[in-house]
Design brief:
Length: about 160
């Protein structure tokens, strides 16, 4: 339940009611819970799974474009990409129009990992969202979308 702000509490940050903190905690709990299965069964880190998931949906992106789509740090994406390339889960090709630019896509091994991990991720999501009614799930989806768009605008300004 949100704390009513008064002049006495307006200048104090109460983390348990601070939305960015709460979203971060939720993200960390969910990511770590799922990551245990990814690491144990597939030897994947969270950033590596995110790269695989993005490239499964949007093949032929550059590492910078992957970073933009995931809002991940470019260094974390670069490390994930290097590990996936070394493991044979990604292939890199040079862009035909600009030889300085590379395009990434899943190799057959990467596609195989995606095909096996995606159902686990979807199952976890279902179990998590089972705590909400269908109406609440639709509202959450709509509200999270609005917050993402607003956060992007705030970051750009």
């Amino acid at each position: 339940m949100p704390v009513k702000r008064t002049s006495r509490t307006a200048d104090k940050l109460h983390l348990e009611h601070f939305v960015p903190y709460r979203l971060s905690v939720l993200t960390n709990i969910v990511s770590m819970s799922i990551a245990e299965a990814y690491e144990r069964e597939f030897g994947l880190s969270i950033p590596q799974w995110r790269v695989i998931a993005v490239l499964a949906r949007y093949p032929d992106l550059s590492a910078i474009e992957v970073a933009e789509r995931t809002a991940m740090d470019k260094v974390a994406v670069s490390r994930a990409v290097q590990g996936l390339l070394a493991a044979g889960r990604l292939v890199r090709a040079y862009d035909a129009g600009d030889r300085r630019r590379t395009r990434l896509r899943l190799s057959s091994a990467g596609q195989s990992v995606y095909t096996r991990v995606a159902p686990l991720a979807l199952s976890y999501e279902k179990k998590l969202l089972d705590a909400l009614s269908a109406t609440d799930r639709r509202a959450l989806d709509r509200l999270v979308g609005r917050l993402i768009e607003r956060a992007k605008r705030l970051a750009a300004s």
